[in-house]
Write a structure and sequence with these properties.
Layout lengths: L25 H16 L4 E3 L9 E4 L10 E12 L2 E5 L7 E7 L2 E7 L5 E7 H14 L4 H4 L1 E5 L6
Antiparallel strand pairs: 1-2, 2-3, 3-6, 4-5, 5-8, 6-7
Bound molecules: nickel (II) ion (NI).
The site of nickel (II) ion has 5 residues, from helix 2.
Length: about 160
């Protein structure tokens, strides 16, 4: 696995709507593994392909990153159900040291393709639901700082 360069706010790749993944192959799995490695190395809980310069609809999340055992690789993910609303503080690997309050659905259902091409459904709440919504925004060229309130600068946990 390799560490990838994380693109930061201002890079045009972060503003683009990403293309669907067409081919589930070794190359994609290597990218997902490298994204995961990069996320863990940066103490993040989620990373989207455009953050490493690949404008395709793929994200990796792991809200238990210290244990590294709740990793999800989501290819072509679509949120098909949302319920409730929660405001909480977020950060982003592409916006170093910025934090802000973002309103997100409390519970979601997401349909996606696995790294081996299987159709899957995941129901999530809490931090996992927040993290998935944040990463899926990246796939549509949206950063949390575009929608956050009370943005502050400082060192805290990032995702
Ligand atoms: Ni982010």
């Amino acid at each position: 696995m390799a560490l990838l360069e994380i693109k930061t706010a201002g890079d045009p790749v972060l503003k683009k709507v990403c293309a669907p993944v067409e081919k589930i192959d070794k190359r994609l799995r290597k990218l997902l593994d490298d994204m995961a490695e990069t996320m863990y190395a940066s103490d993040g809980v989620g990373i989207a392909a455009p953050q490493v310069g690949e404008s395709i609809r793929a994200v990796v999340v792991d809200v238990d990153r210290k244990e590294r055992k709740n990793r999800y690789d989501l290819v072509n993910p679509v949120i098909t159900f949302r319920e409730g609303s929660v405001v909480d503080n977020e950060g982003c690997l592409s916006c170093p040291d910025l934090f802000g309050d973002v309103e997100r659905a409390a519970k979601i259902r997401v349909e996606y393709t696995s790294r081996f091409g299987k159709k899957k459904t995941l129901e999530a709440e809490g931090l996992l639901a927040r993290c998935i919504q944040h990463e899926l925004d990246h796939l549509d060229g949206r950063l949390f700082i575009d929608i956050a309130k009370n943005i502050t600068k400082g060192k805290k946990e990032r995702k």
